Amino acid sequence: QVQLVESGGGLVQAGGSLRLSCAASGRTLSSYAMGWFREAPGKVREFVASIGWSGGLRNYGDSVKGRFTISRDNARNTVYLQMNSLKPEDTAVYYCAAGRNYYYTESYRYDYWGQGTQVTVSS
């Protein structure tokens, strides 16, 4: 069992930055690939970014490439999502998830999920 808790969301102006954190407990994260997803009102859950077990392999959704960076610190059982140049369309609840492979981009392939943290970007 893995418990995931997101934090760091909030209200930010367009063009600003936020860093989200996902803290894990129950088991170490070193055995899992980690992903970030987001869900905006009226839209399906969207893949944002993922990272492999050791942090060397990463993948990003097309809408966030060049703006967001995923990283992990296995010693602290924590995954991060640095979000720069934020746009109003980035407004969503952001979820972290643990799965088998970093290249999974579909939510059903992930095994554990956090409760989400709200990110709101104003214009």
Kindly list the characteristics that best describe this protein.
11 strands; seven-stranded mixed beta sheet; globular; mainly beta; 123 residues
Describe this structure in words.
- With 123 residues, this protein is mainly beta.
- Helices cover 0% and strands 51% of the residues.
- It contains no helices and 11 strands.
- It starts with a strand and ends with a strand.
User: What gap, in angstroms, lies between the N and C termini?
Assistant: 40 Å
Unreliable stretches covering 5 or more consecutive residues? none
- Beta-strand segment tally: 11
**Percent of residues in beta strands?**
over 45%
Given the structure, what is the number of helices?
Answer: 0
Using only C-alpha atoms, the radius of gyration works out to 13 Å
Largest sheet entry:
7 strands, mixed
SSE pattern: EEEEEEEEEEE
- Helix percent band: under 10%
Summarize the structure.
0% of the residues lie in helices and 51% in strands. By secondary structure, it is mostly beta strands.
